[in-house]
Design a protein that fits this description.
This protein is an alpha+beta fold. The protein has 10 helices and 12 strands. The longest helix has 18 residues, at 16-33. Residues 61-298 form the Endonuclease/exonuclease/phosphatase domain.
């Protein structure tokens, strides 16, 4: 029985409502079938996101933004966005990303041209680290156990470059005020992160390790001028790293230092690289300008790397 015969049958049996619905269905079906060659508009459907080509030289920056860039929050972070855009980093490693979840940081990062974001939120910590990038970055690991503010371990897509960002414990104590175990905790953090990254993958050569280490380097300071310990950064250098600024510009302990680090009173922010990375570094410097003097108590660290 074809559709028209079914309609006649329903009409004869007196099922008027059913007949009406079926008639409407028949009309819709006839209309759809009569339009076999409907053309979609040019922008119909989702388009694949445009893939950017990696640059010849990658600009990487590390910055402790002081409790979620709190000094620019009332201004909707407009000064911060303007400042980041002025330096135009390809990868930005952030510490103290307070108050930002994944969505909020994605929204902010898009304003300065970064559409790839990795966060590392911990329920027991209000000072997370994060990575944002112009180019795809693949998260390999988020380190959260036995460390204070954690670490992110990622790789720049289509390269062998491993990127690690961290923020070590800032206090002189560990368990309780007065125990003077802060240096021991920072050494523990260094070992936990090294064990989860460069030591775990010894055959991988290209590594960048950066952030706020709340530790000093023996290359910058004589032991008599600080009560801090060199242990954490000694451990990092023993694993095969060297600070990019030291590599390019020398350091105080051998009388060749170029940069006089201005604040927060001692240098505790670093961008470390392995030898295969350092030989391709063309620029490495702290940034001191009118913005950084006001909006954070840490200077950003910047370096350029030939890919």
């Amino acid at each position: 029985m074809n559709i028209m015969e079914k309609v006649k049958h329903l009409y004869k049996t007196g099922s008027w409502r059913t007949w009406t619905l079926l008639a409407c269905f028949s009309l819709v079906l006839w209309t759809a079938c009569s339009k076999k060659d409907v053309e979609l508009p040019d922008d119909g459907g989702e388009k694949e996101p445009e893939e950017l080509t990696l640059p010849d030289t990658l600009k990487i920056m590390s910055y402790n933004i002081l409790e979620g860039m709190k000094n620019d929050k009332a201004n909707n972070y407009n000064k911060f966005v303007e400042w980041v855009r002025s330096y135009n980093p390809d990868v930005l490693a952030l510490q103290e990303v307070n108050g930002f979840n994944q969505k909020a940081l994605e929204k902010l990062a898009l304003r300065y041209g970064h559409k790839y974001v990795i966060t590392n939120l911990k329920s027991t910590d209000n000072y997370p680290v994060a990575l944002t990038s112009k180019y795809p970055i693949d998260a390999r690991r988020r380190v959260t156990l036995h460390v204070s503010h954690g670490a992110i371990f990622a790789r720049l897509k289509d390269t062998d470059l491993n990127i690690v960002v961290t923020h070590f414990w800032p206090q002189a104590y560990w368990y309780k005020v007065g125990d003077n175990l802060g240096n021991d905790y920072r050494l523990q953090e260094a070992n936990v992160i090294l064990d989860s990254t460069i030591r775990k993958f010894p055959n991988e050569q290209d590594w960048v390790f950066m952030g706020d280490f709340n530790s000093i380097s023996r290359k910058d300071y004589d032991p008599t001028v600080t009560g801090n310990s060199y242990a954490a950064l000694d451990e990092i250098e023993k694993a095969g790293y060297m600070d990019a600024i030291h590599h390019l510009h020398g350091y105080k302990s051998n009388g060749t230092a170029v940069y006089d680090f201005q604040y927060p009173g001692r240098r505790i922010d670093f961008i470390f690289g392995t030898p295969s990375v350092l030989k391709r570094v063309t620029k490495a410097m702290p940034i001191y300008d009118d913005f950084t003097k006001v909006y954070s108590d840490h200077p950003p660290m910047l370096f350029h790397l030939i890919l």
